[in-house]
Amino acid sequence: LWKMQLLDDDHIFIRYASEDVVTLKTMEPNNHSSSLFVVYNIWKNKIVAIYGNQSAELLYLYENFCDSFRNANLAMQSQYTCSPSNNIYSNLIHQRFKQTMIGARGGGVQEATKRILAQLPISAQSYSSSPFLDLSLYSYDDKFVSVLERPKACAEFPIRFFARDSGLLKFRIYAGVQNQQANSGRR
């Protein structure tokens, strides 16, 4: 057992991997081993489905029902969740990412599937539902900020947010470099 997450009140999504991956003896789990994904019904003590790490069916489910993998508590559904399954702009970013992996040297459909499914299961605390990150309201450079909370490169310049309807600059966020710019201007 490597990782798991709640999908809803009845189901757990479990990822099984080899011992080397779980104990971090293998640095690249995607290349050296396979993993299995299991959907388990808690109350019926029953395995509902099993998928391999190259499963086209699981990729389809993830891409089209992404919110089910991200937000275990859909009863308190936020109006600002932005994912490839509910937002056209987020879907375009996801498809661009997928096509980049397919077209890369050593890539292909199976490699892209493995890399996308390697993100699963997703920690419930990994996503931000801020209205400022809603891609239907704003466009921004997703290299420096995204709804997925993970380490990002810090830009030298402020991250600019443009209104999706007008294309006008609405605001900027200085990612911790504002004081450095102010000090460099005084020299």
From TrEMBL:
GO terms for molecular function: ubiquitin protein ligase binding; ubiquitin-like ligase-substrate adaptor activity. GO terms for biological process: positive regulation of proteasomal ubiquitin-dependent protein catabolic process; protein ubiquitination. GO terms for cellular component: cullin-RING ubiquitin ligase complex; nucleus. Pfam families: Det1. This is DET1 homolog. The lineage of its organism: Eukaryota, Metazoa, Ecdysozoa, Arthropoda, Hexapoda.
